[in-house]
């Protein structure tokens, strides 16, 4: 029996819709997606949920998508439902503008669209990547409670992660204690919260209590030890992780390479390099970059060069790591050659590249060339100088005895100065015995840190003595004694 024309048309339209939805789900680029979307518009299937949903999802959350395009599609919808709000909130939660997720959530509530557990999962992830300006952690926690989603495991885990990202272990523990069911993600969140707060002993206590541990929990603890320069403990935990049969990932290996660099243990670094090679991590550019830095810090430039030259793919970080390694080892000419090779290969330098080159010029004593590079960075490459760049130029001027130039550079900076940059100039004043500039520097330092006047005055006193101005030195010594000020004690760290 032949179907009536309307039924035929209905079936044809829905078959086409199913085909377009399938194509949107499997497409690989925005170019292909736009063609599919155009075909859907021409065939009047673009408003069908199955088609619109697949097109919108690709644009919003796919690595090859386009949030701007998804945004335009969203605002053309008459009444988007929770799925479309959640999808766009999810997309922005992973973007460079996570605050847009909160704006969308507020719009969702204004339009009387009820959020669900997925809404809060994505919203909390977005909030963990934002500064506490638009919505505070307690406020968003209150909204979760109001809508009754705290009993959902992954929403509670997202709340723990939010507090953990802020280094707020008390609040994270409060959420954890109220959970009916916890999993390894919940426990790992607690560990992160203590690590972020700098409470490594508490973090280790939680870690040791975990009934199950995954690679994330092991890595968080290892990374915490590494960042705290507790390298031996990082190594011990890494080998324990290996013996437990847990396979390390890229983040784990970067942390353990950093621990090697902190310790300056070349033998251990070579053992870790061998482990990376044997376990199939050698192709990872990030690990090779970390290894270059580690070998350089351990004094093995030959191995750093060997690894650099054998890398098939080199990122900007790779070039920067090698340039800085050469600069720190006094191989300025190699650093300059690398920079020329890098730019001729079409790789655009960034602020870190120029910082490494300024270090090379400083060590080489090439003041004129270094300052011209500093000016070129801003003029030719449009890279704004940060405090680190200014500090490097001040150090370069100071080493060359150009103290007035260094002083003028600091006071003309378009960004606020700090005590580090003034102390660099003060050290140069001490070397060259320039009392007048030293007095001006001390004045600036006292404005920044008035509670450290005793320490600065002792330094000025030493400069007076070095310049043969014993009268001023004795007067200052008496002033310091009368005020009962004390120089902050020095300290040193020795790895045993």
Description:
Helix 9 (153-165) runs parallel beside helix 11. Helix content is 72%, strand content 0%. It has helices at 5-26, 30-42, 49-61, 67-75, 82-93, 99-110, 117-127, 137-147, 153-165, 169-178, 184-196, 200-209, 215-227, 231-243, 250-263, 266-278, 285-297, 301-310, 316-328, 332-344, 351-364, 367-379, 387-399, 403-411, 419-432, 435-448, 453-466, 470-482. It is globular.
Average pLDDT reading? 87
Biggest β-sheet description: none
The SSE order reads: HHHHHHHHHHHHHHHHHHHHHHHHHHHH
Poorly predicted tracts of residues:
1-8, 492-496
Strand content: under 5%
The secondary-structure class comes to: mainly alpha
Please count the beta strands (DSSP E, at least 2 residues each).
0
Question: Helicity level, as a percent range?
Answer: over 70%
What's the end-to-end separation, in Å?
A: 90 Å
Cα-atom radius of gyration: 30 Å
The number of helices is 28
What is the overall shape?
Answer: globular
């Amino acid at each position: 029996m032949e179907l009536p024309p309307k039924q035929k048309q209905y079936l044809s339209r829905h078959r086409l819709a199913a085909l377009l939805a399938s194509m949107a789900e499997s497409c690989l680029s925005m170019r292909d997606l736009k063609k599919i979307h155009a075909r859907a518009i021409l065939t009047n299937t673009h408003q069908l949920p199955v088609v619109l949903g697949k097109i919108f999802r690709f644009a919003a959350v796919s690595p090859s998508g386009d949030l701007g395009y998804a945004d335009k599609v969203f605002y053309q919808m008459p009444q988007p439902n929770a799925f479309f709000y959640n999808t766009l909130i999810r997309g922005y939660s992973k973007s460079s503008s996570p605050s847009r997720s909160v704006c969308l959530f507020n719009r969702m509530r204004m339009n009387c669209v009820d959020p669900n557990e997925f809404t809060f999962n994505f919203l909390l992830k977005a909030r963990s990547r934002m500064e506490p300006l638009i919505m505070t952690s307690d406020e968003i926690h209150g909204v979760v409670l109001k809508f009754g989603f705290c009993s959902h495991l992954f929403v509670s885990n997202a709340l723990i992660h939010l507090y953990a990202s802020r280094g707020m272990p008390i609040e994270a523990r409060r959420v954890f204690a109220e959970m009916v069911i916890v999993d390894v993600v919940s426990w790992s969140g607690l560990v992160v919260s203590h690590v972020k707060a700098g409470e490594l002993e508490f973090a280790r206590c939680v870690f040791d209590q975990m009934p199950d541990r995954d690679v994330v929990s092991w890595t968080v603890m290892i990374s915490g030890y590494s960042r705290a320069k507790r390298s031996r403990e990082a190594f011990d935990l890494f080998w324990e992780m290996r013996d437990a049969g847990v396979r390390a990932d890229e983040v784990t290996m970067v942390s353990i390479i950093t621990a090697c660099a902190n310790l300056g243990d070349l033998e251990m670094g070579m053992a870790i390099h061998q482990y990376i090679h044997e376990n199939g991590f050698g192709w990872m550019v990030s690990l090779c970059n970390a290894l270059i830095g580690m070998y350089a810090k351990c004094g093995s430039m030959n191995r750093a060069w060997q690894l650099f030259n054998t890398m098939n793919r080199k990122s900007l970080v790779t070039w920067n790591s090698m340039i800085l390694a050469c600069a720190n080892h006094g191989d300025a000419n190699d650093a300059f050659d690398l920079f020329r090779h890098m730019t001729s290969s079409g790789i655009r330098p960034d602020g870190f590249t120029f910082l490494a080159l300024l270090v090379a010029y400083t060590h080489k004593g090439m003041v004129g060339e270094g300052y011209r590079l500093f000016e070129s960075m801003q003029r030719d490459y449009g890279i704004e100088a940060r405090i680190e760049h200014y500090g490097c130029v001040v150090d370069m001027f100071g080493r060359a005895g150009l103290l007035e130039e260094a002083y003028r550079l600091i006071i003309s900076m378009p960004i606020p100065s700090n005590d580090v940059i003034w102390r660099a100039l003060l050290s140069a004043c001490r070397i060259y015995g320039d009392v007048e500039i030293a007095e001006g520097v001390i004045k600036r330092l006292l404005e920044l840190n008035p509670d450290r006047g005793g320490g600065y005055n002792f330094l000025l006193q030493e400069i007076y003595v070095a310049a043969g101005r014993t009268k001023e030195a004795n007067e200052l010594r008496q002033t310091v004694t009368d005020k009962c000020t004390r120089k902050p004690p020095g300290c040193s760290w020795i790895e045993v």
